[in-house]
């Protein structure tokens, strides 16, 4: 625009009359460029000259600058300029909110409560679990669990919008908008039904399943708070909520298909939660349970428990659970934790160590992260019975982490030291607790199976094999479904998976020793045979679904026990207990026996010999077993 036109514009604006009530036709006498001179909102925001009225195309609604930059060229009469910094902050907040919404939707599947359920059902969900008083459920430490999924929220005074200064942040610096999760769940919590995939449960079903879990399964590893309501578990961690439901549904006679449906949906839910960072305390507790009572599988090659153990330990240390009283060392914010919050973190870390060692022992592999802070279980911290139970189990599992004894020259000395430590544990054990007895027997068996690596010429070899045989007998007697003069034993139906693996080890120890002609002649073979049959029956009782590992291994034991040739499993003399597989630590005897069985089974298949022709007794073994077992 020329200087003349610019000055003309100024003069025309200066001489323009004030608005009056005159007819609009008088505006036609004004200069054309004065009336139509406009600026779009983008140019007005940047205080730039807009050529919208001078565009070459009269029909065009965009100025040259907006066309070049691809901006939305609009004229707004009510437009007001905004500060650039303020607008940038608004954009950043909007981006963070969108990221948080995406992470919540990724980590959590659609959890909906049906609006058709009666209000009475909703009241039963939010009410106390049967057998636990309302006072216990309304304790001061219960709100801790509600904050577990909010572990990335920064305290009030550090970042705006934080709802609770006691919430424990994770290692990330990005705050999580907890109101998104809260609004999403609270809006549907009062209708009484919960849905995951094709699984739909009423409030009464949820309460019954939680009662069953805390009554039957919780005593094995008492690290969760039984005073927390199912609703609080769901709000805090959907994966943990559904994992508890899955464990309780393992032997649910009223709905036997529930476990099958959950086995399809819950693992996907856990994997999606693992993909979302940062991880939460509830997710760590979910992994602990999934490793303790995993979903039934037909082969250890598809069992993710050992992999879950590694993820669990790494995520727990990243959150600072191994230093439960010092979470500030792993965040950028000042925190004030209550005694209940510290105790919750401490119990979770102890459970991580217990499960990591027991799962590693069960598969015959090294523990991913054998870390324990001795101050975790000081006497001043043992303020509850469940802490004493965890303390005993932790001290038992510490003895599982023994050095590799397969090639040690100082093996007798190490045996003596470890036996002394186990004797001290036995002296401090509550003999009335079937759970403590179970863990102690597992620890003793883990140590004594190393006796099979000894050379038969070493003094005391036969005595040590006798000790191993006695411990294996005690293990089978403790877990057998029906004990003389007592009520039916409920241990086989609720046994943790790593305790089942110790039981399998005990059964194969009995098999190998009883098949050896030398030791069968000096031991009570009749009682041993009876116990081995009890072990086979117990494995079938431990089996949760058709064709899972316990059921298949019971058939393997029956096959090896009834096979006419003793040399298939063991030899004739004292040297016949030597193992071919020696790289799976204390579980080497299990893998050694399975390799012998697999090779013989394949030879029988190749030669056309049937099981009935071999022994005429056991005809229930599937011919497809060698393909997928172990």
UniProtKB/TrEMBL annotation:
The keyword Coiled coil applies. One of its GO terms (biological process) is DNA-templated transcription. Residues 81-108 form a coiled coil. Residues 15-26 have a biased composition (Low complexity). The keyword Transcription regulation applies. Keywords: Coiled coil, DNA-binding, Metal-binding, Nucleus, Transcription, Transcription regulation. Residues 1-14 have a biased composition (Polar residues). PANTHER family: FINGER DOMAIN PROTEIN, PUTATIVE-RELATED, REGULATORY PROTEIN LEU3. This is Zn(2)-C6 fungal-type domain-containing protein.
């Amino acid at each position: 625009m020329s200087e003349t036109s610019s000055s003309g514009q100024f003069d025309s604006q200066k001489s323009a009359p004030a608005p009056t009530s005159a007819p609009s036709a008088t505006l036609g006498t004004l200069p054309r460029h004065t009336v139509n001179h406009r600026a779009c909102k983008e140019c007005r925001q940047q205080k730039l000259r807009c050529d919208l009225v001078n565009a070459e195309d009269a029909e065009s609604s965009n100025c040259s600058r907006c066309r070049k930059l691809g901006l939305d060229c609009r004229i707004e009469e009510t437009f007001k300029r905004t500060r650039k910094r303020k607008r940038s902050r608004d954009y950043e907040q909007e981006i963070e909110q969108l990221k948080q919404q995406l992470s919540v939707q990724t980590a959590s599947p659609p959890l909906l409560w049906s609006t058709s359920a009666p209000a009475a059902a909703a009241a039963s969900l939010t009410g106390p679990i049967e057998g636990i008083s309302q006072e216990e459920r309304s304790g001061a430490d219960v709100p801790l669990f509600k904050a577990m999924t909010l572990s990335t929220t920064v305290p009030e005074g550090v970042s705006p919008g934080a709802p609770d200064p006691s919430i424990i942040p994770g290692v990330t610096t990005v705050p999580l908008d907890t109101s998104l999760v809260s609004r999403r769940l609270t809006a549907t919590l009062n209708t009484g039904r919960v849905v995951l995939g094709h699984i739909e449960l009423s409030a009464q079903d949820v309460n019954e399943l939680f009662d069953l879990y805390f009554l039957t399964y919780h005593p094995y590893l008492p690290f969760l708070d039984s005073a927390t309501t199912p609703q609080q578990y769901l709000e805090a961690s959907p994966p943990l909520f559904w994992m508890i439901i899955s464990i309780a549904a393992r032997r649910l006679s009223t709905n036997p298909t529930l476990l099958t449906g959950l086995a399809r949906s819950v693992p996907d839910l856990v994997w999606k939660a693992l993909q979302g960072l940062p991880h939460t305390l509830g997710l760590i507790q979910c992994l602990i349970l999934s490793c303790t009572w995993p979903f039934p599988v037909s082969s250890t090659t598809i069992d993710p428990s050992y992999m879950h153990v590694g993820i669990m330990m790494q995520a727990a240390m990243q959150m600072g659970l191994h230093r439960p009283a010092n979470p500030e060392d792993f965040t950028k914010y000042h925190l004030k934790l209550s005694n209940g919050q510290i105790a919750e973190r401490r119990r979770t870390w102890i459970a991580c160590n217990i499960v990591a060692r027991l799962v590693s022992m069960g598969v015959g592999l090294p523990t991913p992260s054998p870390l324990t802070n001795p101050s975790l279980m000081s006497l001043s911290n043992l303020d509850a019975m469940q802490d004493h139970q965890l303390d005993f189990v932790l001290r038992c599992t510490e003895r599982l982490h023994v050095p590799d004894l397969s090639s040690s020259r100082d093996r007798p000395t190490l045996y003596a030291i470890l036996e002394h430590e186990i004797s001290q544990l036995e002296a401090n054990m509550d003999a009335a607790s079937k759970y403590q007895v179970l863990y102690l027997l597992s620890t003793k068996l883990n140590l004594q199976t190393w006796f099979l690596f000894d050379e038969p010429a070493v003094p005391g070899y036969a005595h040590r094999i006798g000790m191993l045989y006695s411990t294996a007998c005690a293990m089978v007697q403790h877990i057998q479904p029906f004990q003389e003069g007592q009520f039916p034993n409920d241990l086989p139906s609720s046994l943790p998976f790593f305790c089942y693996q110790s039981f399998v080890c005990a059964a194969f120890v009995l098999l190998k020793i009883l098949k050896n002609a030398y030791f069968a002649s000096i031991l009570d073979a009749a009682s041993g045979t009876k116990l081995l049959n009890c072990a086979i029956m117990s494995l079938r009782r431990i089996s949760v679904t058709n064709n899972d590992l316990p059921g298949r291994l019971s058939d393997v034991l029956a096959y090896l026990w009834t096979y006419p040739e003793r040399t298939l499993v063991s030899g004739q003399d004292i040297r016949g207990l030597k193992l071919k597989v020696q790289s799976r630590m204390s579980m080497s005897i299990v893998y050694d026996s399975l390799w012998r069985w697999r090779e013989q089974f394949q030879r029988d298949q190749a030669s056309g010999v049937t099981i009935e022709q071999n022994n005429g007794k056991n005809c229930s073994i599937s011919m497809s077993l060698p393909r997928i077992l172990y």
